[in-house]
Write a structure and sequence with these properties.
Chain lengths: ~450, ~160
């Protein structure tokens, strides 16, 4: 009954659905979505499952569940206070199964997303309800967004991974995604994103997982991102060939364009990047992103928009220009793996020694010596390496670029400003198709016809 | 994010110790990174406590570092609620009765705070409140005035 990858590795429903879409040449598109009320969550899953696209559905958990404050989650359920996600630990398992069935009856897989550095209770709830896909990691859900000591997060994730493999007792192969390719979302050069994602994949494997996905978040330069995705696929082939795996791309995670046109253009770029770079799955964002939490309808529109953009794109030729992302990521990975046979211990030692150092991350276990910046060509580069084995990009003056407060604001808004500053499109029928087929016009042409 | 006018911070003054942090529920840190750079460019020494600072930790760091100024920055919408609790904990310690404590960011869930909410923050013990829309210049002007007060005190 269990489907298997070419390498003979079993796949659960989530991994099998992604593999099937990839075999058909379709990109799987997936939203972020979570509601405290089971009926609203079920309706959201149903809408995602019915979208005109190859979708994966999402159950995002609320922030009380994320930090383990279950008393607060239960209080909110009891008095009807709104929650910003689905409290999977505190809803009865049969309620959660009823919710999930909305996607499953359309053969659409579901991933639970949570953001927890210590997710024991969440994984226990996944086992109770048979959820076969979730995400995170001991580094990616600890250093950027919590104060939990890295040592505790590593121990917790090791226990959770081992526990999750017991889903096999139900005949289901669990799938785990590393969030390591996102980190703080902005100003981290790609080599470190790749290294953390691959190392978390190796950590998952050490603790029993056989089916994984590795993430990468869209950054400031499509060309650099395309090279990064090619490097990530090569690293997976070399270092994780024994696993079932795929690459998931995140639409830009930083300050989002404020205009609808700018937001859709950025989403379209992400969809085409996913196809060109060989990603099998794309996490989308909506034009509401800069302003508020999107509605179900806005999410469905974004999923369909991304699917249309992806369908019009072709995978990139095998050779992409190599500026050294692969070599730098590989060097980082090897520097970490030399510290211990145990990947968790190696990761802890690597951060303690500064061999891994997330730029602008304030967590006490992060060395905080490294800095990234955006070059005048729009690429991410290192201005300070700290103790990492990476190459510092020097300005024309021969000195590394120092980040100032003004410079930081400009860098954080770089992508949003570039996409918002596009001239308004020509309104009305006719002229748009006559214009040169730039990226922008292709996107316009794929939008539903407006009378 | 509010776009700020390109004004250079005052080159004079500085030299104060600033303890910088956020409320216990807030995982955002880019605001803290930005403020650290801004304060350092103004010549101050910054101790940045990072994300999700528990009230007790904030108070302990205050006692340890004896700062000239405490800056609380929050953008998750819980800043008003959580910020009042934080100020109460800090002001409950006699050793922290006089240190200036300021709060800023996106402090409410629904845009700007009401006048009553701002008054509650002052009543809880804040020396200044920089709600959503307050720009960098107002903050720097406040820092400048703080310098004058400090200079007067030492004179």
């Amino acid at each position: 009954m269990t489907e298997r990858s070419a390498a003979g590795v079993p796949r659960g429903p989530f991994a099998a659905a992604v593999a099937a879409a990839r075999a058909r040449g379709e990109l799987v598109v997936q939203p972020r979505m979570g509601f405290g009320d089971p009926a609203a969550m079920r309706a959201g899953l149903d809408a995602v499952a019915r979208a005109r696209a190859a979708t994966a559905a999402t159950v995002t958990l609320d922030s009380y569940t994320r930090v383990g404050d279950h008393a607060a989650a239960r209080r909110a359920l009891a008095d009807g206070s709104p929650l910003n996600g689905y409290p999977i630990v505190d809803h009865p398992p049969e309620v959660t199964r009823w919710v999930l069935a909305a996607a499953h009856r359309h053969d659409v897989p579901v991933q639970v997303r949570h953001g927890s550095a210590r997710p024991e209770q969440i994984f226990a709830a996944l086992l109770r309800t048979g959820v076969d896909a979730t995400e995170g990691g001991p580094v990616s859900y600890c250093l950027p967004y919590s104060r939990v000591p890295l040592r505790d997060a590593v121990d917790s994730w090791a226990r959770c991974c081992a526990g999750y493999t017991r889903l096999r007792d139900l005949g289901v192969e669990p799938h785990l995604e590393s969030f390591g390719g996102c980190l703080l979302g902005q100003l981290c050069p790609p080599s470190l994103l790749l290294a953390v994602a691959v190392l978390e994949g190796m950590f998952f494997r050490q603790h029993g997982l056989r089916s994984v996905s590795l993430s990468y978040a869209q950054q400031t330069s499509p060309k650099q991102d395309e090279e990064a995705l090619a490097a990530l696929r090569r690293l997976i082939d070399e270092l994780l060939p024994d696993l079932d795996s795929h690459v998931v791309l995140y639409t830009y995670m930083g300050v989002y364009p404020r205009t609808t046109e700018g937001a859709l253009r950025l989403l379209g770029t992400a969809a085409r990047l996913a196809v060109r770079g060989g990603a099998a799955r794309l996490i989308v964002k909506t034009p509401a992103e800069a302003h508020r939490i999107p509605t179900v309808e806005e999410n469905v529109a974004a999923l369909e928009h991304a699917a249309r953009a992806a369908a019009a794109e072709q995978p990139a030729p095998a050779e992409v220009p190599d500026t050294g992302i692969y070599a730098e990521a590989r060097t980082l990975i090897e520097a970490v793996l030399e510290l211990s046979e145990d990947v968790g211990i190696a990761l802890r030692r690597a951060f303690a020694r500064g061999y891994l150092d997330i730029p602008y991350c304030l967590h006490p276990d992060n060395a905080g010596q490294a800095r990234g910046y955006i070059t005048d060509r729009g690429r991410l580069a290192w201005s300070r390496a700290g103790r990492m084995p990476v190459t510092v990009d020097r300005s024309a003056a021969g000195r590394p670029v120092e980040m100032t407060s003004d410079g930081l604001l400009a860098a954080l808004s770089y992508v949003a400003n570039r996409h918002d500053s596009v001239p308004p499109p020509v309104v009305g029928p006719g002229p748009t198709t006559a214009l040169p087929a730039t990226e922008f016009n292709r996107q316009r042409a794929q939008k539903p016809a407006v009378p | 994010m509010t776009v700020l006018a390109p004004v250079q911070p005052a080159a004079t003054g500085g030299g104060r110790t600033v303890l910088l942090g956020t409320v216990s529920s807030d995982a955002h840190t880019w605001n803290l990174v930005y403020l650290q750079l801004l304060l350092e460019e103004a010549g101050h020494r910054v101790i940045n406590l990072g994300a999700c600072v528990p009230e007790e930790l904030f108070a302990a760091e205050c006692r340890r570092s004896n700062p000239d100024l405490v800056v609380v920055s929050s953008v998750n919408g819980h800043g008003c609620t959580d910020g009042k609790r934080l100020a109460a904990v800090l002001r409950a310690d006699p050793a922290l009765a006089d240190v200036p404590i300021v709060i800023g960011g996106k402090l409410g869930v629904d845009g700007s705070l009401t006048g009553a909410q701002v008054a509650e923050l002052f009543a809880a013990g804040y020396t200044a409140v920089f709600d959503d829309g307050a720009d960098r210049d107002r903050f720097l002007e406040y820092l400048g005035r703080l310098e004058l007060v400090a200079a007067d005190r030492s004179a």
